[in-house]
Amino acid sequence: MLLEFKDIHKSFGEVAVLKGIRLALETGSVLGLVGENGAGKSTLMNILGGIVPLSSGKMELSGKVYSPDSPNDAQTNGIAFIHQELNLFPNLSIAENLFIVNFPKKKVMGCHFLDRKTAREKTEKILSQVGLDVSPNMPVANLTAAQRQMVEIAKALSTNPKIVIFDEPTTSLTRHEAQKLFNLIRSLKNEGLAIVFISHNLDDVMQLTDHIAVLRDGELIAHDETTSYTIPTLVNLMIGRDMGDFIPRRDTVTSGETCLEVSGLKAGYIGPLDFSIEKGEVLGFYGLVGAGRSEMIRMVYGLDPMEMGTLRWNGRKMHNLNPVKWIKQGVAFLTENRQDEGLMIDQTIAKNVQLAVLPRYTKSLNRVDYKEVGKRSRAQADAVNTKYQNFTTQVVSTLSGGNQQKVVLAKWLLTKPELLILDEPTKGIDIGAKHEIYTLINALVKSGSSTVLISSEIEELLGLCDRIIVMSEGRISREFKKEEFERSAILEAALHHTEEEVL
Amino acid sequence: MKASFFKTSGAASIIYLCLGYYIVMAFVAPGFFTVNNTWNLLYNLLPLLVIAIGQTFVMITAGIDLSITSIIAVTSITGGYLMSSDTAIFDSPESLIFGVLGMLLVGISIGTLNGIAVARFGMPAFMVTLTTMMLFSGLAIWLTQSQNIYNLPEAFVNMPYSSFLGIPTPVYLGVIVLGLSYFLLNKTLLGEWIYAIGLNVETSRISGVKVARIIIFVYAFSGFCAAIGAIFYTARLETGSPVMGQNILLDVIGAVVIGGTSLFGGKGKIIWTFFGAFFMVLLDNSLNLMSLSFFLIMIVKGSVILIAALLNANREKSLRTT
Questions:
Q1: Which residues of chain B fall below pLDDT 50?
Q2: Do A344 and B190 touch (CB under 8 A)?
Q3: For residue A385, what are the CA distances in angstroms to A135, A337, A341, A378, B238?
Q4: pLDDT in the model for residue A244
Q5: Domain region containing B196
Q6: For residue A138, what are the contacts with CB-CB under 8 A and spacing of at least 6?
Q7: Minimal Cβ distance to B199: which of A301, A346, A365
Q8: Could A327 and B199 be called an inter-chain contact, meaning their C-beta atoms sit closer than 8 Å?
Q9: What is the CATH number of the domain that holds B265?
């Protein structure tokens, strides 16, 4: 055994995140680590990578006790961590990025100078290992997402690791690029390295790994050879129940009446786009990162300017779009970035929930009817099941991610939206809260409102939507009606343009 | 005990600070605890308080208004020009009304200009108001050729010393501004939106807050408050002066910051600013009475404001980590 986790416990405050994990890692093999957000995958790997200390238990590396006190310490012990968010400086060159800590130096007349020549040569060697054929002087900003990933991997490999951790490495890659990455991972494995591969993409996990460990709520639920799993069994293990129950069912009632009609929407690489939403419909948008879904909806809501396009709301043409106007018309927009655009993070729950609806609760002299809005907002927060200690004094930053999202949701539901736009509403929140949000969407639609759901979780879209529009590189690549829903076809549509250009 | 003292809300600690300082100075500073000096304190407090209230509005939105000194200068010469018997633009009784209205109008206009530059053109408040400060300060001096304007109407220069029902007129004015701004910030939609913008401007925009309009309002309001301050100063000095208020910026920012209003926005209260302004006036007055030099007073004031800002920064950090 190269590495063993022995009864690892970890708590943040009173919250137990890992509850006695026992897991082993062999040389020359790939371990897939799967589980929902908040299951404890990242925490476990952060302990291995020396980013957070463990609360109790121990790790053994090649039979010796291993307790890293910093990421650097972990690195010297042969552990390389390739994070989901890449840690590169876009303004610097590849070589400068690789040697940001230990830049080669030369001595001229007793003074130390940077030795760019040596750095370049070393970089070239490292880049050729990962099969990246670009100049070491190239600024990282000029590289594609996949190339940046490769630079990050090259950087990790330059430390001669024994264990390499990949955290969601494929989220920003095209299929073709992902395959190239997998080939590299396989060759690393053949060289005798141990690989940990964390991913939400179960297809990738099944294809690439030798063993799979499933975490749920901080516990190791299963650990076995990859061949003993199927995707459905994995999903069941991850969420602890059938996906069928997990996303509550709803009978589609289409009214046939259009509420929002978008035509010829265009700006930059986006569009031209044409689509419409019917009353009582859930319209899903799927696509890869950078497909332009968020950009598109931000233009519709008047947050970013459009070059061309017309919007009709209930048949009426809309001019000079802005949130004030849309909220008045009954259109609400829950943005992807909860912290920066959804909440006033240092403000109380009450004020956050009330923000969008305040103009509707004013008396003479522009006074706010605090009594009424206080009552309504509390009722709404309770209706979406927000868990808090004190509604009027507690600050939202003290809430969990799921509860914060419920605060944002309560804010928008309080405006009684006819159309609710949700951009990645379940990103980074726990399963329980997810389930509740699904139930809320269904309830909203049942009451006659419509929903636009932008999501990167295909299961979520399949379960909730009446129709799914797949976007790729700023265009609509295909539209699926409910009876045509099929996982692989939707994925293929999302990759459509990208693949053509790569191949 | 000490730690908890500084951790209490800005309001509580600044009140204790004012009281403590007042009591100590009553013993230490010669001529401090006299009827005459108490009037002095009041007359110094009122203009500073009103101007600082305007600044509080701006700072709650995470902005800053450095142009107040130039607004005071321009409004002062405007008032002088409209009211002085030298220029004789209006007859005696009307000149007072037109003078005061003119001053308010000019103050609001310059403030609006600041607000438009910040809100519509997205320029940093610091840059906008720094440049308008230079521009209008220069303009005031150029227009008057650096000459003061004298011979203001009797009714105007006597205003600070007149009284109604035994209470000096300026107190009414101060109470009205205090009450109005408290009402606006704490009871109205406008106030809710001002705080919201300071806490998170993006969230506010997406949630339907009329961000540009509110930002223009707070700068215009700051200009309005500065104009009221200028009316006080002009009447007391009996002069329309193009360099009026040049040294007041530090006192105003100091009053707001000592009161505990956050420079990062979203936090601040009128009552805090009241005590902040009171403390600045106490400091100025007592140090003067102890016959410290102007420069020494500047050093002390600067240090006090620095410490206040430090305490605020610490308080915010501790709030974030808990």
A1: 1-8, 321-322
A2: no
A3: 54, 21, 22, 10, 65
A4: 53
A5: 2-321
A6: A93, A94
A7: A346
A8: no
A9: 1.10.3470
Distance (Å) from the C-alpha of residue A433 to the closest C-alpha of chain B?
A: 22
Contact predicate B225/B51, CB 8 Å? yes
* Domain pair A3-240 / A241-330+455-503, same fold: yes
- For domain A241-330+455-503, the CATH architecture is 3-Layer(aba) Sandwich (3.40)
Which residues fall within 8 angstroms of residue A336, CB to CB, at 6 or more apart? A294, A423, A424, A427, A454
Cβ-based contacts under 8 A for chains A and B: 75
pLDDT of residue B311: 79
Q: Which residues of B touch A346 (CB under 8 A)?
A: 199, 266, 319-320
A255/A465: higher pLDDT: A465
Inform me whether the pLDDT recorded for A49 exceeds 50: yes
A329 touches chain B (CB under 8 A): no
pTM of structure: 0.79
pLDDT tens, A118-164? 889 988 888 887 878 889 899 988 888 778 888 888 888 888 899 99
Instruction: Report the C-alpha gap between A284 and A479 in whole angstroms.
Output: 10
List the domain boundaries for chain A: 3-240, 241-330+455-503
- The answer to whether A345 contacts B200, with C-beta atoms less than 8 Å apart, is yes
Helix, strand or coil, per DSSP, at residue A164: strand
pLDDT in tens, B18-72: 888 899 988 888 888 888 898 889 889 999 999 999 999 999 999 999 999 999 9
Q: How far apart are CA B136 and CA A462, in angstroms?
A: 63
Chain segment A385-403, per-residue pLDDT in tens: 898 999 999 999 888 888 8
From the options 1.20.1250.20, 3.40.190.10, 3.40.50.10490, 3.40.50.300, give the CATH code of A3-240: 3.40.50.300
- Chain B CB contacts of A354 under 8 Å are 192
Q: How many domains does chain B have?
A: 1
Preferred mutation among B60, B193, B202, B203 to probe A, highest tally of A CBs within 10 A: B203
CA distance B313 to B264: 10
Supply B27's token pair.
């013993």
A274-284 CB burial, b ≥16 within 10 A, e <16:
ebebbbbbbbb
Report yes or no: A399 and A349 within 8 Å, Cβ to Cβ. yes
Q: What is the pLDDT of residue B207?
A: 96
Residue of A nearest to B180 (CA): A365
A342 contacts B266? CB cut-off 8 A: no
Beta strands in chain B (DSSP E): 163-164, 167-168
Q: Nearest 5°: phi and psi at B228?
A: -65, -45
Tokens 């460990």 found at? A213
| Paired tokens of A356 | 């969008």
Which value does ipTM take for this structure? Answer: 0.86
pLDDT at A501: 44
Given an 8 Å threshold on Cβ–Cβ distance, is B188 in contact with A333? no
